[in-house]
Write a structure and sequence with these properties.
The chain is mainly β and 160 residues long. The chain has one domain: Calycin beta-barrel core domain (Lipocalin, Beta Barrel), CATH 2.40.128. Strands 2-3-4-5-6-7-8-9-10-11 form a ten-stranded antiparallel beta barrel. The chain is globular, with a radius of gyration of 16 Å.
Length: 160
């Protein structure tokens, strides 16, 4: 069966790098963050779309997004730099995830039900400058004990 991927490549566009250089001296900006995530399992799929208030910061050649889900108490820190996106979650759900097309990432993922060792295989990792913010789009697979658990799409938009 042929797999179809939503995003074709890993990139941090020249426009993003230019935008970062323009805002190097800029402090944290309050933004509205839209998060779309979809998990595609063998038997079904789950889709979720949420909005949060958070902060967007450009520092050096990196972009940082921070937001807190007040319902779950989970704070999410996202860093995008040169085609690599790191996501750190703290609170009732904990984890350090890295999305990099060049290298699979193994990590322990902590949930209310216990910890799991997972492997992330990134198919696409895109960071795109928008007029008043940034968009990060990830297409990846989660594996556990060598078996595919799900294909995933994670899109974060942070706009003023």
């Amino acid at each position: 069966m042929k797999e179809t991927r939503l995003f074709a490549r890993s990139s941090v566009s020249n426009l993003v790098m230019h935008r970062i250089s323009l805002f190097k001296e800029k402090s944290m900006q309050d933004v509205t963050i839209k998060v779309f995530d979809k998990q595609i399992y063998e038997s079904h799929s789950d889709t979720n779309e949420t909005k949060f208030k958070g902060q967007l910061t450009y520092k050096g050649s990196s972009v940082y997004i921070t937001f807190k889900d007040t319902q779950t108490g989970v704070t999410t820190f996202i860093k995008a730099k040169k085609g690599i996106v790191s996501v750190k979650r703290m609170g009732s759900l904990q984890g350090n995830l890295e999305f990099n097309r060049e290298m699979p990432h193994r990590t322990l993922y902590f949930t209310p039900y216990g910890e799991m060792e997972i492997q992330i295989i990134t198919h696409s990792c895109q960071v795109e400058a928008k007029e008043k913010g940034i968009k990060i789009a990830l297409d990846y697979q989660i594996r556990m004990q060598g078996k595919k658990i799900s294909d995933n799409i994670y899109i974060i938009e942070a706009n003023q």
